[in-house]
Amino acid sequence: MPVRRRRPHTSGGLETLVRTVGRTIAELEEGGKMNKTVKINRPENLFEGFEAESGAAGAETEAEVRERWPEAWEQAREARQAMTADDQEWWQREVTAQMIRLAEFMAAGVPVDAPEVQAELDIHYAGIRRFWTPSAEAYKGLGQTYVDDPRFRRNYDRIAEGLAVYQRDAMVVYADTLLS
Fold first, then answer.
1. pLDDT digits (tens, 9 = 90+) for 40-77
2. Distances in Å between the alpha carbon of 58 and those of 53, 88, 95, 111?
């Protein structure tokens, strides 16, 4: 069973909670009126609704990854094989929860270089390291993939419009600050 890390407590977390509650109250008061408030979807498990590629499309995607990043593909394959079904479910739920936390920071206007956002990125990077250890450039490239690849972008933007870009920008700060 994987080690489950708790999100570090920061004073910024309380400020974010206050902003989130305020935003929620504003949304309720507005009712059906259109406003500029960022809508955050909170699926219990985002990946349950994710349309995983199967058949030829799935094989094509796997071949693309294996060809472009053979070493990372092999490390990730070995890590996935070592995961039990419970491990995979826990990981999927944690990834979804982290995406929601980042969406809350984005909606509250927290800059991507803020300590609380970067603490989330530290958790994200640790999660990625379960499968492969990206360099600063590779981590930034992964963030760009979240924006450029419609399969990734769709998943992020299902949580909140603009989240893929926010995540990418936060990953660039993290990589430049801690991985370079």
1. 665 544 444 344 444 555 566 667 667 766 776 677 77
2. 4, 18, 21, 36
Q: What is the mean pLDDT of residues 117-126?
A: 95
- Which residue blocks in the chain are alpha helix, DSSP H? 11-30, 55-68, 70-82, 85-107, 115-129, 136-148, 150-159, 163-174
Q: Distance between CA atoms of 20 and 75, rounded to whole angstroms? A: 38
The pLDDT tens digits of the residues spanning 78-90 come to 777 777 888 778 7
Give the torsion sign (CA, 77, 55, 151, 65): positive
Share of the chain above pLDDT 90, in %: 35
Write down the residue that tokens 């499968």 correspond to: 131
Task: Please give the structure tokens belonging to residue 150.
Answer: 């419609």
Quote the CA–CA distance of 112 and 115 in Å, as a whole number: 8
Is the four-CA dihedral 82, 97, 45, 173 of positive or negative sign? negative
CA distances to 24, 110, 112, 146, 167 from 139, rounded to whole Å, are 33, 21, 15, 11, 11
Q: What is the per-residue burial (b if ≥16 Cβ within 10 Å, else e) of 79-89?
A: eeeeeeeeeee
Q: Which of 34-43, 145-154, 171-180 has the lowest mean pLDDT?
A: 34-43
| Residues 180/136, Cβ–Cβ less than 8 Å | yes
